[in-house]
TrEMBL record:
InterPro entries: ACMSD, Amidohydro-rel, Metal_Hydrolase. Transmembrane segments: none annotated. Pfam families: Amidohydro_2. Gene3D superfamilies: Metal-dependent hydrolases. It comes from Jiangella anatolica. This is Metal-dependent hydrolase. SUPFAM superfamilies: Metallo-dependent hydrolases. One of its GO terms (molecular function) is carboxy-lyase activity.
Length: 266
C-alpha cells in the first residue's frame, strides 16, 4: 500500500497552486499508484483552522479510504484543542498538523502543549513542518517535543527541509523513539533518502509529497527509483504509515498496486 502522508488541498494565500481540487489530487494519485493521501487544508493553515479542518473532514468523508484529514492545531486559538478533541474520532481523521512557521509560534511554546497532550492521549500522530535553523520548527526542537511526550508519534515534515540539516535530522530520529522523518521537498533527493534510511532506519522514514503544493509524481519517483532494499522501500512507501495510523487507515484498496508499480520499475 502506498500512502502519501503529507498532502494539502485548496490554495494558500502566498503560493500559486495550479490544481487545488481533491479531484485532481486523486486523479493524479490513481495515475501514479498512490492509494491514500493525508491532507491538511490550506484554509486551515493560512486563514481559519476551524473552518479549514471542517473542509478537510468533509473531503475525507467524501473520499473514504483515499483521503485522510490532518487537523491543523492553531496555537492562537485558546479553545482549539477542545474543538479538535471532538473531531479526532471522526472516521477519516488521521491526526494533527502543526505548522509553527505559518503560525509564528515555536513548537516548544506552551500554547502547543494541550494539542500535543491531546494527540498523545488519543494515540494520533502529529505531522509538523520541520525546518532546519528555523526559530519555530528546527528538528532539534521537534526532538525535544518527542522527548517530553514519550507516547507521541511525531513526524518531522520535510526532514528538516534544507540539505545541510538532513543528516542531523536523521540522527535525531534515530535517537528518539517517537520521532520520524517525512520526506517531501524538492531538495530531498533520492540520494538523501537513501542516506536517511541508512542513518535513521527504514522504520523511521515515511513517504510524503506535499502535493498539491508540490508535484506528487516527482515525490513518488524518488522513492520508487531509489536503491533501497525492497523491504525498506515498502516500509517508507506505506508500511510505516499503516503501522502508525492503525485503524485510522482503512484496509488496502488495491492489494496488487504496489507490486504492479515496483514490478514495472524493473
Ligand atoms: Zn506541506
Amino acid at each position: 500500500m502506498i500512502v502519501d502522508i503529507h498532502g494539502h488541498l485548496g490554495s494558500p494565500g502566498d503560493f500559486f497552486v495550479p490544481e487545488p481540487s481533491a479531484q485532481w489530487l486523486l486523479r493524479m494519485a490513481d495515475r501514479v499508484g498512490i492509494d491514500a493521501i493525508g491532507v491538511s487544508h490550506f484554509v486551515a493553515l493560512n486563514l481559519d483552522a476551524r473552518r479549514g479542518n471542517t473542509m478537510a473532514i468533509d473531503l475525507a468523508t467524501q473520499y473514504p479510504g483515499r483521503l485522510g484529514a490532518w487537523l491543523v492545531a492553531n496555537p492562537h486559538d485558546r479553545d482549539g484543542d477542545r474543538v479538535i478533541a471532538d473531531q479526532l474520532d471522526v472516521p477519516g481523521v488521521w491526526g494533527l498538523k502543526v505548522h509553527p512557521d505559518f503560525h509564528s509560534v515555536p513548537v516548544l511554546d506552551r500554547r502547543y502543549e494541550r494539542y500535543l497532550r491531546l494527540a498523545a492521549d488519543h494515540s494520533v500522530p502529529v505531522l509538523s513542518h520541520g525546518q532546519t535553523r528555523s526559530d519555530y520548527s528546527d528538528p532539534a526542537d521537534l526532538a525535544e517535543v518527542a522527548r517530553r511526550h514519550p507516547g507521541l508519534t511525531l513526524l518531522v515534515g520535510h526532514a528538516g527541509l534544507w540539505t545541510d540539516g538532513f543528516a542531523r535530522a536523521a540522527e535525531l530520529a534515530a535517537a528518539q523513539p517517537g520521532l520520524h522523518l517525512e520526506i517531501a521537498g524538492s531538495r530531498l533527493t533520492t540520494r538523501w533518502l537513501e542516506r536517511m534510511v541508512a542513518i535513521a532506519g527504514a522504520d523511521k522514514v515515511l513517504f510524503g509529497t506535499d502535493a498539491n503544493f508540490l508535484d506528487p509524481r516527482v515525490g513518488l519517483g524518488k522513492v520508487v527509483h531509489s536503491r533501497l532494499a525492497d523491504a525498506d522501500r515498502e516500509l517508507v512507501l506505506g508500511g510505516n504509515a499503516v503501522r502508525l495510523l492503525g485503524r485510522r487507515l482503512p484496509p488496502h484498496r488495491q492489494p496488487s498496486r504496489e507490486q504492479d508499480l515496483l514490478g514495472r520499475r524493473g
